Amino acid sequence: MNVVDLIAAKRDGCEHAPGDLSRLISMTVTGEVADYQLAAWLMAAYIRGLNRAETEELTGALVASGRAYPLGHFGPHSVDKHSTGGVGDKTSLVVVPLCASLGATVPKMSGRGLGFTGGTLDKLESIPGFRTALASGEFERIVSRVGAAIAAQTQDLVPADGKLYALRDVTATVDSIPLIASSVMSKKLALGCPAVVLDVKVGEGAFMASLPQAEALARLMLDIGRGAGRRISALLTPMDQPLGQAVGNSLEVIEALDTLRGRGPEDFVRHCVLVASEMLGAAGLYPSAQSAAPAVESHLRSGAAEGKFLEMVEAQGGDVEALVTGALPRAPQSADVFARRSGFVRAISARAIGQVAASLGAGRRHKEDPVDLGAGILLRCSFGGQVDRGQPMATLYSSSKALLEAAIAPVQGAFVIGEEAPEALPLVHRVLRA
Question: Which residue among 82, 163, 188, 201 is the active-site one?
Fold first, then answer.
C-alpha cells in the first residue's frame, strides 16, 4: 500500500477502500509509516471525517494491534466504564468498588489528566505506594481476587492507539468524533467485558460542548459496541459545573472516600448512583438500572462499599492507613476566595475551575509533565446555594504562593452570584442504550 496515496485520498475527501485502514495501522505498528505521514493522515481525517464503515474498521484495527482479551474473559457479569472527562470527575473511584461490592467484576483501565480535566491514575497515585502500572498477569490476578482493579493501560493493549493519540495531542486533532470513538472503543473492546457503560460529558467543562455533539459521539460508540456484541449504554451528563466539591488529585480521593462512607456531596452521590445502577443493570445483575438503584443507594448510605475500595487499594500496594487517616499529600500553601456580594450561586464555571486547578499544579499541559498531587481547589459552596458577602467560596491549595495569588481573581470570576435561585440542573440529559 502506498501511504502517500492513502493520505491524498482522504485529503481529497475520498472514502478509504475496505482493508486500507487495517493495513495503515498494521504498518504503523511495524514502523513502516513515518510519524509525519501518520500526522498528515490524521489531519486529513480530522478535516474530511471518517464514515461509519471507516470508523469501525479503524477501531477493529486498533484492537488487533495488540493483545485482546476474549469476550467474557473476566466473567459474565464483568462491566467496563468510561467517562469522556470532566472537572471534579472522580466517579470511577466510587463506582468501581461500589459495583464490585454488589457482585460485578470491574477491570478498569484508566488514563492521566491533560489540560483542565483530571485523570483517575493521577488521583490514585496520591495514595502513597499505590501502583497503577500493573503487568497483565498481575492485573488479572487482582481482578480475580478483589473483583476490581484500576490501572494504567498495559503496553500490549491497543498499542497503536497510544501512538495515534500522542500525535493527535500535538497536531490539534484530538476533538474529532470518529477519532475519539475509535480510540475509546478500541480499548473497551480489547478488554473483553460483555457490558460497557459510557459517561459522555456535555457542557463547557467537557470536550463535547453541545448536546448534539455529545449525542453524535455517543451513538457512534454505541453502534461500534453493538456491532462487536457488547451490551452497551451511554449516559449524557452535564458538565457545566464541577462535579462535587473537590478538584485536584488528593482532594478528590478524600471526597471519593467520604462518598463511600455515606458522606459525599449530594450532586456527586446522585451521579454515582446513576452510573453504578446503569453498570449493574448492563452487567445483568439486576433486570434494569432502575431496579439496581435501591441497592446502590443503600450501599452508599451504609458505607458498605468502603471495604471493597480499601481492599483494592491494598492489593495495588497502596498505604491503606494513610488513606483512612487522611495522610495524603496536601500542598503547603492555601488561600481562601471570598464572595464579593450576597445572593444565590447561579453558576460555577467548570472550565474556569479546572483551568485554575491545573495552573496551581494539579494538572499538566503535556503528558510527560509532573503534577502536584496536593494542589487543587475545594469548593465551599455549591450551585444553587446561598452565600453572604465575605463568605469563603473556595479554598485554593498550591506549593507556590505566587500561583495562589494569581488564581484568586479567576476563581472569583468563575462564580456567578445573583438575587434569585437558579433552576435545578438535570442529573442526566439522556440515556441511550444499544
Answer: 82
